[in-house]
Amino acid sequence: MAVSLLVWCIVTLIYCDGSNTTELTFLETKILQMERSMAIQNDRIKYLEKKEVMQDRKIENLKEEIYRLRPDMKSFKRSINSMMKILMKNRRRMVRDYTPNMKSDSSKHNSIVQREVGIEQGKTNLMRQANQIIAFYAYLNNDVKSPGIHQTLVFDNAITNEGKWYNKFSGTFSARMDGLYVFSCSIIMDGPGQYASFEIVKNADIIGTFFVDPQYDEGYKYSSLTLVVYLHNTDTVFVRIGSSYAVIGNVYSRSHARSSFTGWKLN
């Protein structure tokens, strides 16, 4: 298209009367438009190259997270299986040792009581593990300069991380138990003329979006989103730059105003 326009301009200049300033002005305008179009295309190519680098980095972070969590999941499953085997084994022993004259045999009676206590303690431990408090709160230590579309925001200062399910190095929360969870994110943009959309993502699915737009304000502006979602074991949740709009500006986070991400397990 640009080549055709250039040829057209050259041909027109050859046959154009030098006194016809209107046509010359028209041609100059077309040339300027073509130069601006080429500049936009160059900017787009640079943006796509930057996006590719960010996506490669995100893939590497996710791989590291998978490798890190794999031993923890195996250990957790082994602990549950081992505890269930112990409970079943104690229950079989209690049934096997039961006799009609159990009340007259104090030693057997005490042994059965101890086994019952052990079973109840095992149940209590399982319930305690199921009702473990899971909660995190993290914020950005510094501004995120000119982020790209679908770039994950890594909230690298974890003030609260009960259960250790949030990874401050990758910015991801990984559920290790089925249940209902609450997530909330608050983002600040760095001053007038800047805007961006943001997404809360579960695995590869967008479960929430919000927009920050301070371009008509004199100062900073923030926006937030809170949602409730059911997660299965190994589901992952994180915050990233949305694709609804091109990103203009920086994500702001300083000592007097923090962009943050938080979440907790309801049941």
From TrEMBL:
Residues of the signal peptide: 1-21
Gene Ontology CC: extracellular region
PROSITE patterns: C1Q (PS50871)
First-listed, main subcellular location of the protein, grouped into a coarse class: secreted
Domain C1q, residue spans: 129-267
PANTHER family reported for this sequence: C1Q DOMAIN-CONTAINING PROTEIN, CEREBELLIN-RELATED
Listed name of the protein: C1q domain-containing protein
Lineage: Eukaryota, Metazoa, Spiralia, Lophotrochozoa, Mollusca
